[in-house]
């Protein structure tokens, strides 16, 4: 039985109460374009493997389609549809001039050599390049991809279209990337945690935080939150977790990137990855994959505040249980929006052909995210709804207005 994410419920609720035609609702709910391509690859040993590549372009009423490329075994078209829709609401909520998209390749990057991955990534662009471009659709890193893959994408794109750094974001700084993009999502998560604590009258510096998922987003959020004074009592990756009520040494945890948690020896108690979700803490940050918080574990969550660093980490049923328990949730479309926001700065930098300084990136990021937060808090007080529902109301309305005013392009 597939898990239904809290995203679907919030989307449906907003559409239900929205004063617009059924046709408009259908347009807001479904992607504008979907492409699936076959990707044959000659492997290093001479054998042939066949992969599938996807791009779902959800909506471009407010600007070019924008969203990451995911390399993961457990992806399919439905998955990308939800993730692309999430991007549309995320970019609208923080009010940057983009739409939403998502895509990737159904593969396990760990099973491929670097050479195979490079060929596969470039083949993906060769087969889909008609979709992409700085004013059309701009890919970025997501699960299983990072600056290295973005360089390959850009290189394949430029072979066909000439120099165009703005066609991809999340590139290395040396190829037109922007300072601060790598840590941007984690930084945003930390900032929203701080602001949510202020709003809920929680003193962050005396609070215990648990982080489920220690990839790029989770590890940066952990580091910045500990710099803000919070105590990171638990953290996990897919192999297992660590718990220390006095606080884990985040610098040490980050120092051996790539080494699985289960194989480490650090000060604390070894626990399972899922134990982190029910550990005794004040703030829980799901930073791993979709559908982490379900009806089976939501009841055992002890945290009072959840900040969704991953996309779609909470199912509808889990959300109902958590709301019943009085847990506040900062939804993914806001909580992890720091990444795409700095992608927007990178795209602006590329069109100016002039590099932004790190201080400027930090300043603009904090200012843009704070405006989105203030707007959400104010609207939520008026609407008396959850952060998620209010966020969807704001974002979907912005997209609806753009579609109407621009006349359904
Ligand atoms: N993959 C990231 C996300 O889900 C970043 C997308 C981007 O920068 O375009 O928000």
In short:
This protein has 409 residues and is of the alpha/beta class.
Summarize the structure in words.
Strand 6, helix 7 (216-227) and strand 7 (231-237) form a beta-alpha-beta unit. The protein is built from 13 helices and twelve strands. The chain has helices spanning 6-17, 22-29, 77-93, 114-128, 147-161, 181-199, 216-227, 250-255, 316-324, 332-335, 338-352, 358-383, 387-406; strands at 33-42, 48-59, 65-72, 100-106, 137-141, 208-212, 231-237, 240-243, 269-271, 283-286, 305-307, 328-330. 44% of the residues lie in helices and 17% in strands. Strands 9-8-7-6-10-11-12 form a seven-stranded mixed β-sheet. Helix 1 packs across helix 13 and helix 4 packs across helix 5. The protein starts with 5 loop residues before the first helix and ends with a helix. It folds into two domains: 30-164, Leucine Dehydrogenase, chain A, domain 1 (Rossmann fold, 3-Layer(aba) Sandwich); 184-335, NAD(P)-binding Rossmann-like Domain (Rossmann fold, 3-Layer(aba) Sandwich). It is of the alpha/beta class and 409 residues long. The radius of gyration is 20 Å and the shape is globular. Glutamic acid is lined by residues 66-68, 140, 142, 169, 311, 336, 339-340, 343.
CATH class of the largest domain: Alpha Beta
- Total strands: 12
CATH topology of the largest domain: Rossmann fold
Within CATH, the superfamily of the largest domain carries the name NAD(P)-binding Rossmann-like Domain
What's the story with the biggest beta sheet?
7 strands, mixed
- Ligand catalogue: glutamic acid
Tell me the β content. Answer: 15-25%
Order of helices and strands: HHEEEHEHEHHEHEEHEEEHEHHHH
| CATH arch. level architecture of the largest domain | 3-Layer(aba) Sandwich
Average pLDDT score: 96
Helix coverage percent: 40-55%
Strand order of the largest sheet: 9-8-7-6-10-11-12
């Amino acid at each position: 039985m597939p898990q239904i994410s809290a995203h679907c419920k919030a989307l449906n609720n907003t559409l239900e109460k929205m004063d617009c035609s059924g046709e408009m609702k259908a347009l807001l709910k479904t992607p504008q374009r979907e492409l699936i391509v076959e990707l044959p690859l000659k492997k290093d040993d001479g054998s042939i493997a066949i992969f599938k590549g996807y791009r779902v372009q959800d909506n471009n009423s407010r600007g070019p389609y924008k969203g990451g490329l995911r390399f993961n075994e457990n992806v399919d078209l439905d998955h990308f549809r939800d993730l692309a829709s999430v991007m549309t609401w995320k970019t609208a909520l923080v009010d940057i001039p983009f739409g939403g998209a998502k895509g990737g390749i159904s593969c396990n990057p760990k099973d491929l050599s670097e050479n195979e991955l490079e060929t596969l990534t470039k083949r993906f662009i060769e087969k889909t390049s008609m979709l992409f471009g700085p004013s059309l659709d701009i890919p970025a890193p997501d699960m299983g991809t990072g600056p290295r893959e973005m360089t390959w994408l850009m290189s394949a794109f430029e072979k066909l279209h000439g120099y165009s750094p703005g066609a991809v974001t999340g590139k290395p700084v040396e190829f037109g990337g922007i300072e601060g993009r790598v840590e941007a999502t984690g930084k945003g998560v930390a900032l929203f945690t701080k602001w949510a604590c202020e709003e809920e009258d929680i003193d962050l510096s005396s609070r215990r935080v648990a982080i489920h998922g220690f990839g790029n987003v989770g590890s940066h959020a952990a580091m910045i939150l500990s710099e803000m004074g919070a105590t990171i009592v638990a953290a996990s990756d897919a192999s297992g977790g660590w718990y220390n009520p006095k606080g884990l040494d985040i610098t040490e945890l980050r120092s051996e990137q790539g080494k699985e948690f289960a194989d480490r020896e650090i000060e604390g108690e070894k626990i399972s990855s899922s134990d982190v979700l029910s550990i005794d803490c004040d703030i829980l940050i799901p930073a791993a994959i979709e559908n982490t918080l379900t009806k089976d574990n939501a009841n055992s969550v002890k945290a009072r505040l959840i900040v969704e660093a991953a996309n779609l980490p909470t199912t509808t049923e889990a959300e109902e249980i958590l709301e019943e328990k009085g847990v506040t949730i900062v939804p993914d479309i806001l909580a992890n929006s720091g990444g795409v926001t700095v992608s927007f700065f990178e795209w602006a930098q590329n069109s100016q052909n002039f590099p932004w300084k790190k201080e400027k990136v930090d300043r603009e990021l904090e200012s843009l995210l704070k405006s989105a937060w203030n707007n959400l808090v104010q609207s939520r007080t008026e609407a008396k709804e959850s952060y998620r529902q209010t966020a969807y109301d704001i974002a979907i309305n912005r997209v609806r207005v753009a579609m109407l005013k621009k006349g359904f392009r």
